[in-house]
Amino acid sequence: MAKTQIAIISTGGTIEKTYSEMDGILHNQFSVLDVMLARLQLEGVELVRVPLMKKDSLDLTTEHMTLIAQTAGSMAQTHDGVVIVHGTDRLSETGERCVELLSTPPVPIVLTGAMKPYMMRNTDAMQNLTESLLAVQLLPPGIYCAIHNKVLQFPGVSKDRARGTFV
Amino acid sequence: MAKTQIAIISTGGTIEKTYSEMDGILHNQFSVLDVMLARLQLEGVELVRVPLMKKDSLDLTTEHMTLIAQTAGSMAQTHDGVVIVHGTDRLSETGERCVELLSTPPVPIVLTGAMKPYMMRNTDAMQNLTESLLAVQLLPPGIYCAIHNKVLQFPGVSKDRARGTFV
Amino acid sequence: MAKTQIAIISTGGTIEKTYSEMDGILHNQFSVLDVMLARLQLEGVELVRVPLMKKDSLDLTTEHMTLIAQTAGSMAQTHDGVVIVHGTDRLSETGERCVELLSTPPVPIVLTGAMKPYMMRNTDAMQNLTESLLAVQLLPPGIYCAIHNKVLQFPGVSKDRARGTFV
Amino acid sequence: MAKTQIAIISTGGTIEKTYSEMDGILHNQFSVLDVMLARLQLEGVELVRVPLMKKDSLDLTTEHMTLIAQTAGSMAQTHDGVVIVHGTDRLSETGERCVELLSTPPVPIVLTGAMKPYMMRNTDAMQNLTESLLAVQLLPPGIYCAIHNKVLQFPGVSKDRARGTFV
User: Which residue ranges in chain C fall short of pLDDT 70?
Assistant: First the structure.
């Protein structure tokens, strides 16, 4: 059986932040997504990596979000699904931008991210990445957020900052 | 929004094996499922734990498999989904037994397990548990196996021993 | 055989920093030293915990360093050794302050810390804590730094900021 | 300052055991010592790796133990210290064999091992390896065991099987 062809677009965000010993701060400097992917056994999907940008989502402009949505739209034409790895602070805005630009895409587009960097022991990064890579195989076409064991469909998804999750 | 009510039935298997310093062997002695669950952020499901047995699946008799299938069938009457954590060596047999006894249950029943115990650094346990707890929310009623980023529907699932996964 | 009685003074520092989901920054908010200690099998020492302060060492004043040195001096009167867990940025200054105030104490005083917080996957915290808890049993009286598989004696220890270690 | 030149002899043992998915058993098949060493920041020592054998220590014959002791003796002639990584079940016997063959060597020889394989989450392997690599720099010439935050000198060291440590 042919595996599902999935494009995975990385944009940076907390999930990929690494710690710099020199200044003691967390940065979006390296892509740790490949490290995360190497820890998973992916029998269901074949991945095409699209390393688009490495940004804290608080630094994203409207143009950045449009670029992410357009890239997801292009990938959706030629793959069975698209996963977007994104900072959680602006994830909802990019999801809504996808709805505006793409309406209903031909395949599922799933946005995910993490509240705690992969490099932290108690991270939610592996959980959310695992969920998005399964959800993209099971969902009908549409634009979604898959985080913390829950799938939400855009439009209308927002970050609940007090609880640190999406609703 | 009410969370999905999921019954999670544990039966033992490699996923829960722990190392004994005294004899240097891996045993099904303690339930480590609660440790795994505590590491996940479960916003989508509300879990009811059903600790049914603690067995290496090579030690399961036909009666044990019937008991697991019947328990899953009972739980399927009163919950939105059922997850069965099971040893991989006999997971297929228990899945087929579920099909025989339950035909199409009213809600999804998802079997999962691991090729390497949770207690090993390079385990697939968290991945498979995460996947089964998401799949049970997204799938239509039926009996499934969710392991290694792939969902397979019973009947007809088998372990590929050479590759260490399910097909 | 009676275990060696060791006082372990915690002052904060990178080693104990935890990640806040709310603001995405690393803080000295909780004491994670007890978590680290619980992961070690300590057959050689019996520990007395002295949680003195929870500070990034960049925020330490001269008064703070004097307080740490005096506390170490007091503990050195009544224990077989003293370990001080400290931020690396000012560790050398506190070590020199110990030399000024205590000259040669009756037992070894060992300062340690970490370049990367315990909560990071690739931390040096466990290594340095392990080393300091062994060094304090083997060294003659004096004031030392034990980090990165090396023991250095004060006075004259300094942080090599370019290489991220002590020389 | 020149680093201390240390020979590290690996012989197998629980510390290096890995899990085989095929038969579900822990084996001495690969050398995981290099993985462990890569996780440490070793500023104090320069290591020469001597991969002598890969054996569960229950399978060691008298000839094997003599070979280990002789190799340690040779390395002690040309290095500043020797670390022997060994299974704990027969570690005491090999230590005593070193005493018989080498009497007091010109440099410290430190035996270590682990009660739980490195590949287990709750292993004592990193602690014991860290301790032995520091102890070999601080101890006077002699034959020692460094495990669980304690250094013991041969002859007269034995494994306390009930407590899972050395006395």
Answer: 1
Chain A residue with the nearest C-alpha to that of B45: A149
Digit-coded pLDDT (tens) for A85-96: 999 999 999 999
Which ranges in D28-146 belong to alpha helices (H)? 33-38, 62-78, 91-102, 125-138
Tokens representing A11 are 């944009």
User: How far away is chain B from the Cα of D24, in angstroms, using its nearest Cα?
Assistant: 8
Number of H helices and E strands in chain C, helices first, is 4, 10
Closest B-chain CA to A148: B41
A125, A117, A159: which is closest to C20 by C-alpha? A117
What is d(CA C164, CA C113) in angstroms, rounded to the nearest whole number?
12
Chains linked to A by 3 or more Cβ pairs within 8 Å: B, C
Task: Please state the rounded mean pLDDT for residues A30-53.
Answer: 94
CB distance A139–B138 less than 8 Å?
A: yes
pLDDT given at position A1 = 57
Average pLDDT value for residue range D44-50: 96
Here the ipTM equals 0.95
Interchain CB contact of C156 with D (< 8 Å): no
With CB atoms and an 8 Å threshold, state whether A149 touches B130.
Answer: yes
Chain B residues close to A41, C-beta within 8 Å: 124, 127, 148-149, 165
Residue found by looking up tokens 């300062």 in the block: C111
Give whole-number Cα distances, B61 to B57, B94, B166, D68, in Å.
9, 10, 21, 47
pLDDT score recorded for residue D1: 57
Rounded Cα gap, residues A146 and C111, in angstroms: 45
| Pairing of the two strands B108-112 and B142-147 | parallel
> What residues are paired with B161 via a beta bridge?
none
Alpha helices, H only, B7-164: 33-38, 62-78, 91-102, 125-138
DSSP label of B60: -
Interface contact flag, D120 B161, Cβ < 8 Å:
no
Among the partner-chain residues D24, D26, D117, the one whose CB lies closest to the CB of B14 is D24
Residues 25-54 in A contacting B (C-alpha not used; CB under 8 Å)? 39-45
Q: What is the rounded CA–CA span in Å between residue D111 and residue C140?
A: 23
In three-state form (DSSP H/G/I as H, E/B as E, the rest C), the secondary structure along A104-155 is CCCCEEEEECCCCCCCECCCCHHHHHHHHHHHHHHCCCEEEEEECCEEEECC
Question: How do residues D58-91 score in pLDDT, each as one tens digit?
Answer: 999 999 999 999 999 999 999 999 999 999 999 9
- Residue D74, classed as helix, strand or coil, is helix
Beta bridge partners of A27: A18
* Preferred mutation among C45, C47, C83, C149 to probe D, highest tally of D CBs within 10 A: C149
pLDDT tier, B1 (very low <50, low <70, confident <90, very high otherwise): low
